[in-house]
Amino acid sequence: MAPSSVSPGPAAFLNLLETQLLLATKAGVSVVQAVGNGGPDASSVVSFSPWITSVAASTTDRKYNKTIVAGNGQIFSCGGLSPPTPGDTMYPLALADDVSTDNSTDGSNGCQDPKVFIRSLVQGKVIVCMIVSSNYYQGDNFAGIIDTIQKMGAAGVVIIDRYSGDVDYEYQPIFPTAVPSAMVVDGVDMMNLMEYYENNTARDGDGTVITFGATVRILEGRRASYSGERPEVADYSSRGPNIENSQMQLADVLKPNVMAPGHHIWGAWSPTSDALPEVQGESYAILSGTSMSTPHVAGVVALIKQRHPKWSPAMIMSAIMTTADVTDRSGRPLMARRDVGAVVAATPFDMGAGAINAARALDPGLVFDATYREYLQFLCAVPGVDEAAVRRAVGASCPSSRARWCSDLNAPSVTVASLVGSRRVDRKVWSVGAENETYMAYVRAPDGVAVRVSPDEFTVAPGETAALRIVLNTTAPGNAFSFGEVVLRGDKKHSVRIPLAVYPAAVLSGP
Questions:
Q1: Are 89 and 215 contained in the same domain?
Q2: C-alpha to C-alpha distance for 508 and 511, rounded to whole angstroms
Q3: Which residues are CB-contacts of 342 (< 8 A; sequence separation ≥ 6)?
Q4: In this structure, are 376 and 236 located in the same domain?
Q5: How far apart are CA 354 and CA 363, in angstroms?
Q6: Do residues 98 and 201 touch, judged by C-beta distance below 8 A?
Q7: Sorting pLDDT into bands at 50, 70 and 90, what band is 161?
Q8: Tens digit of each residue's pLDDT (9 = 90 or more) over 30-42
Q9: Which structural domain range is residue 280 located in?
Q10: How far apart are CA 229 and CA 137, in angstroms?
Q11: In a 3-state reduction of DSSP, which class is residue 501?
Q12: Which helix (H) or strand (E) holds 389?
C-alpha cells in the first residue's frame, strides 16, 4: 500500500484509507505500508495506525564500485553500473563545452542535445557532462546523456553534479547503461579531476582547445561487492514521532514499526512505463525508497502466514517487531543518516523495532495480539475523538469497556507522548513456542523515566498467556522523547524485545 496523508479531522487514524485498512485487518489481512520518503525530518511519517505494519528503509552492504583511472595515476571512486572502456587503452578526456559548437549554450555541458556537439571532436573520447541534481526531473537526466554519448560515438562519459549544496551523493540514482559511464560522487574528486583536465589541456587565446592531454580509463562497474557494513537508516526514510492529527499533536503509537532494505534494490519494472526514461523498455530497475523496503516485509509476512496460518495480523506484526535486530553481527548499534554526512545511533523513530530478521520472526517465542474490538477501544481513546466520529468512520460504536489511554492497546511496543507522573501499561503475551519456557524481564529505562515490569519472571506453556504490567514514572522531565526497551529472555533461547519511546513531560500536552 502506498502511504496516505494527514487529512483534516479529529484523528489521522480515522481517514478513509486507514479505516478501510482496519476493516481489512478485521478480515484477517495483514497490511504492510511504506512509512514514506520524507526523512530525515521528524514526524514525517505518513503511515499512522497501529493495525498497519509501517516500514522504514535501510541501506545494504552491497555496492557497485566504479573506478576512473587518470593518466597521472590518480584513482577516483565513482558510482555507475556499466561496462568498462574497451581494453587497457587510456582515452582522451574532454569537457562537453570544449567539443561543442561556438554558438552552443551552457546546456551543452548537460549533454542533452547531440546537435550542439562536433562529432569529430567527440568520437573516441570520454566526455565530461554536467548535471544539476535539483533539476533531475526538469530535463537533466541520465537517459539524455547516454543517448547523446551513443549518437556521437564517444568512448564513454563521466558525469559530474554541478550542484554544490548539501547533496548526499551516495543516494544518487544509478541505472544500468550500455555505454561506459561513471558518476563522480565526491566533491574533492570532482575538483581534482577537473584540475587534472585543465592542467593538461592546451588552449589558444580564445579558450578553444588545441590539445586534449588528459586521459582516463573507466573500469568495470557491474559486479557487486559486499562490504559487511551494517545497515543504516536511509536519509530519505520518514521518521517518527507519529502524529494524531493535522495539528501535528503526537500519538501514543510507534511509527515506523520495522526497517528493511530499501536502498538500491533490484525490482521488476514494466517495459511500457515512462516514469523513468533511464529504464524505459527494461524489465528490471534498481530503485530506492520505502516502497522498496515494504515488499521485503510483505514477503516475510507471507512466510509467517504460511508457517502459522491461524495467526492474526497483529500476531504477525508482533513476531516481526519483537525479533528485529538493533545491532549488527558484531554487536554495534544500528545507525541512522540524518543531514548530509551526519550518522547517529538509530532510535525507534528512525527504524521502529529494528532491522527485520526473517528467520527469528518465524519463531518469536511470544506474541502480542489485538482484536478488532481492541482497535475500536484504541480509536475511542484518541483525544478529541468521540463515539459519533468512530461510528461514522467504521460503522461501529465504542465498546462498553473503554481504554483510558491509546497506550493501553496490546501492542509490541510502548509509546507515551506525554508522561506526567506515572502511567501503568498492561500487556498480554501468548506463547507460540513448542515447550514450556521461563522468561526473565530485563529493562533499559529511557532517560528521565523509571520502569518497573511485573512479574519480572514467569513461565508459560505452549498456547497459554501471561499478563505483564509495565509501570512508567517520570523522574526527570525533559524536552524530548527518550528511548529504552524491555527484553523478555527465555531459557529456550527466545528473546522478545519491546521498544519504549517516552516523553517525560512536566505538564500534560495536547488538548
A1: yes
A2: 9
A3: none
A4: yes
A5: 17
A6: yes
A7: confident
A8: 999 999 999 999 9
A9: 12-61+231-504
A10: 32
A11: strand
A12: helix 387-394
Residues found in the chain: 511
Q: What 3 state SS string does 403-449 have?
A: CCCHHHCCCCCEEEEEECCEEEEEEEEEECCCCCEEEEEEEECCCCE
Beta bridge partners of 66: 78
**Cβ proximity of 459 and 436 under 8 Å:** yes
Residue that finishes a domain, picked among 225, 255, 281: 225
By the 10 Å C-beta count (0-12 exposed, 13-18 middle, 19+ buried), 117 is classed as buried
Cα separation, 289 vs 437, in Å, equals 40
Sign of CA dihedral 312, 315, 321, 325: negative
277-320, pLDDT tens digit by residue? 778 888 888 889 999 999 999 999 999 999 999 999 999 999 99
Are both 218 and 257 inside the same structural domain? no
Tell which of 204, 225, 246 closes a domain.
Answer: 225
End-to-end Cα distance, the chain: 31
How many Å apart are CA 441 and CA 459, to the nearest integer?
Answer: 12
Domain-embedded: residue 313? yes
- 156, 293: one domain: no
CA atoms of 488 and 491, how far apart (whole Å):
10
Q: Please check whether residue 509 lies inside any domain of the structure.
A: no
State the pTM of this model.
0.88
How far is it, in rounded angstroms, from Cα 117 to Cα 111?
9
CA 382 to chain centroid, in Å, comes to: 28
Structural contact between residues 265 and 299, judged by C-beta atoms closer than 8 angstroms: no
List the beta strands (DSSP E) in 185-230.
Answer: 201-203, 209-212, 215-218, 224-226
> C-alpha cell of 477?
522531565
What is the strand order of the sheet 366-368 is part of?
Answer: 366-368, 422-431, 465-474, 449-454
